[in-house]
Each structure stands twice: as structure tokens, then as C-alpha cells.
Amino acid sequence: MCIFCKIINNEIPSYKVFENDRVLAFLDASQATIGHTLVIPKKHVANILELDDDTASIVFKVVTQLSKQISKNLETNDFNIINNNGELAGQTVNHFHMHIVPRYDNDGLKFNYPTNKLTVEEFNGLKEKILEN
After folding, report:
1. Residues with catalytic roles
2. Helix or strand (DSSP H, E) at 80
3. Residue 45, pLDDT score
4. Is the pLDDT of residue 66 over 80?
5. Is pTM, for the whole model, over 0.85?
6. CA distance 122 to 128
7. Percent of the chain at pLDDT above 90?
């Protein structure tokens, strides 16, 4: 059983900030910034590729509601909403989860993505590849 399933089953303690019959949200133990929260479906699915549309909708609804609550109560309007999908993307727990990472002035976090310069032809080829089937 994965660590998040153990949290859902109350086998491991957590700091819950939301719970209903389908979704659980709790403070991330590592707190990348103050208020860093994880939102997970109670149904075990490894990643976004296994997530059904109904569960995705419910999870993201909770992400939206909690982001608004965190924004108001922790006095920040800036967030990173993150899903790491797979090992190469940094997923360390194989149970789908979304991170709500509030951002603050001088919080020290850096999310810089390298840029790939594509030609118009490369952009069009990439677009067509994504739209196949």
C-alpha cells in the first residue's frame, strides 16, 4: 500500500485541511513554502494517465477551492499548481496528487524552464504530432 493510501486510511498521521468521500488534502510534510498542500483522490491511481475524468474534475475543484482559501488566509495571490507525472518529472509517490505551492516575496523557490527555439515548421510539425488520432 502506498504512503498516501496509508494517510487516507489514517495509518499515518497528517495535517488534513480538506476531506470528503472522494478527495483528501493535507499539508505537505516538506513545506516547500508555508501552506504547501497536497490534494489527492482517495481512489488509488498512479498518475494522471490513469485518472478518469470525473475524479480529475473533483480533484481540480478542490484544488481551486483550497487555492482561494489559502490565498485569503495566508495573504498571497501567487501559486504554483503542480503535478509531477512519472519519475523523470519528479513524481516520488505513485499516487496521483496535485501540489498547491503558495508563493511569497523572497521565498527562494525557482521554477525556471529552459526554452527550446523552434522554427515555424517545427511548431507546425509538433502541433500536428500532438493532434494525431
Report:
1. 97
2. strand 78-82
3. 97
4. yes
5. yes
6. 10
7. 86
CATH of domain 3-131: 3.30.428.10
CA 48 from chain center: how many Å? 10
What is the C-alpha to C-alpha distance for residues 35 and 92, in angstroms, rounded to an integer? 20
Q: What is the pLDDT of residues 32-41, one digit of tens each?
A: 999 999 999 9
Which residue bears the cell 468521500? 21
Distance (Å) of CA 123 to CA 113, 117, 130, 133: 18, 10, 11, 18
Q: Is 80 exceeded by the pLDDT of residue 114? A: no
Amino acid sitting at position 130: I
- Taking the C-alpha atoms of residue 80 and residue 113, their distance in angstroms, rounded to an integer, is 13
Task: Give percent helix, percent strand, percent coil of the chain, each to the nearest 5.
Answer: 35, 20, 45
Question: DSSP assignment, residue 50?
Answer: G
